[in-house]
Design goal:
Two copies of one chain form a homodimer. Chain A starts with a strand and ends with a strand. Chain A has seven helices and 20 strands. The longest helix of chain A has 17 residues. Chain A has about 325 residues and is an alpha+beta fold. In chain A, helix 3 crosses helix 7. Chain A has a six-stranded mixed β-sheet with strand order 6-5-18-9-10-12, with helices on one face. The interface between A and B is large, with 51 and 51 residues.
Chain lengths: ~325, ~325
């Protein structure tokens, strides 16, 4: 099942059920006007939403055309946004770029940060660049949206709490990171609003691509019209989503609608390219002594889309343009 | 005006208007069933809620008795919880306790972390101690709840976005902090759910105690029945709430209902005592070579309450007991 949120002038938008080809949609029943409403009451909501999904697929409901321009983030405001950094190749490269060592527990203790969740961007929302010196970067990631998740949830039980899978652009202001991390309290100003692909899907919608708590999809990043990364999100995700969930649930419980990210998808094979500019700049530094690729600037475009082995695009595409403040 | 949230079986509870003496309450109009509803529509909601407040004060509405046992956190789940560390005496002492230096920008660049906001505790909720080795500590703080706050809000404009003032226990698992901060991404497991005093108040309700974006109140912490701290929350808050708001809004905007904390209230005058055990342990280490006070254990009680110069308690008391998991 595929869902999306239509901008309708309200803070949380209107929940849509999307036909599997991504071309047609129908509104969710009024009882679950928003995705948060559905997540709060998932057992009942899921049945009703899957019935609409079936009717759309059979053609019993025609649906209306989907316009990604009119879609918001699936959860335009969410109760938590937690981001891991589960692709170790990314951690190693980005820390190298900052002249920092990866932590000694890199392979055993997941890196996680708490992100801001009150303002999420839709798939076509511009990236407003307030100051070029901040070093705007995109980061292509997979994320899951959780149902209610108790404290102490183990990795073995965690899969039951994964409701939906998403594709995100975890925007980062690279040049604000070093001073912020030096203060010791983690990212804050360096992490502006995160953007989401048009659709979220239930794990079963990914079919064989959802394996061992990982999305075995290729995540393609197209920057300024050039395919800059076509990375495999599956095998090199060192910690699976269930393992990340067990980590975050050690001392806390989570409300339905909590979003948990994988961290930037990254492959050791350089031929796959990169899912953020910081990695490309680090590779240039290793090869050529200094970075050649600047960070993003006004007029730049970034497109992020994931594909399964059959070439299907479950989430649709994030397409954002960097703009000056109006 | 004084507000609270009654547990009514729903996720967000039921908004109450509280008589100024804290003893009687009336339900908010159905149009604003929850505090989040009111914050989302503040201009209209505030008028209606203040009318009820006036009627309670005049005795035109009798109200029903307030039972703090039945109150939830004002926002049982919130869109963001951001915590500063604006009392520099606390930063210096706690870093000393960890053998870490305060950052060189201590006086010019606020320390801020993004906390978890999907699960907030009410004023009588127990503190469940899952593992004594985690080093459970309380932290007494003032917080503000914001209305919609645009990116780029300046300190001069920030006061307009402060809707409510709160008293919180920012619970910390001290022994999980060092490894977590060593990884570089900030707190996560070390910050379990935060607890809130029964009532939130509009800044005007604090009268002269709300000055220059700070709450000039005494915050009393009573641990195991002993007053362990009676700290002044006003003058030593190095960064005011408007300054903290300007800091967090540099690169992001915030949804109504975002909660922003002051950090642990701390005074250089040792006679005031402490607003967390970590400070007391550090003082013992300085004086006696090692800490004598253990962290919290099952059966311990912590009570946190703030008083104005006239002895009034605007928020009511947080009263929590440490319990074993059931």
């Amino acid at each position: 099942m595929k869902l999306a949120t239509l901008r309708d002038g309200t803070r949380d938008g209107r929940l849509l059920v999307i036909r599997r080809d991504g071309a047609a949609a129908t509104s969710a029943p009024d009882e679950w006007r928003t995705l948060q409403d559905a997540l709060d009451d998932w057992e009942r909501a899921e049945r009703a939403l899957r019935a609409l999904d079936g009717a759309l697929e059979r053609g019993a409901i025609e649906g209306v055309p989907v316009d990604p321009e009119r879609l918001a983030a699936p959860l335009p405001r969410a109760y938590e946004w937690i981001d891991g950094s589960a692709y170790l190749n990314h951690v190693i490269l980005v820390r190298k770029a900052r002249g920092a060592e990866p932590p000694p527990t890199l392979q055993t203790d997941p890196l996680i940060y708490q992100g801001g969740s009150g303002d999420m961007l839709g798939p076509r929302d511009p990236l407003v660049l307030h100051d070029e010196a901040w070093g705007l970067d995109y980061e292509s990631e997979i994320a899951v949206i959780l149902g209610d998740t108790p404290l102490g949830t183990t990795a073995a039980d965690a899969a039951d709490h994964v409701r939906l899978v998403a594709l995100v652009n975890d925007v980062t202001l690279r040049n604000l990171v070093p001073t912020e991390l030096a203060k010791g309290f983690g990212f804050f100003q360096s992490k502006p609003a995160t953007a989401f692909a048009p659709f979220v899907v239930t794990p079963d919608e990914l079919g064989d691509a959802w394996q061992a708590g990982r999305a075995h999809l290729r995540v393609r990043s197209t920057y300024r019209g050039e395919v800059i990364g076509d990375c495999d999100a599956g095998p090199e995700m060192h910690f699976s989503f269930p393992e990340l969930i067990a980590h975050v649930a050690k001392t806390r419980r989570f409300a339905a609608g909590t979003i948990l990210g994988s961290g930037t998808v990254s492959n050791a094979d350089r031929a796959r390219g990169v899912s953020c500019l910081a990695e490309r700049r680090m590779i240039e530094t290793i090869d050529e002594g200094k970075p050649r690729t600047p960070f993003m600037t006004v007029g730049d475009t970034i497109e992020i889309e994931a594909f399964d082995a059959g070439g299907k695009s479950p989430f649709g595409a994030i397409r954002q343009k960097v703009v000056a403040p109006s």
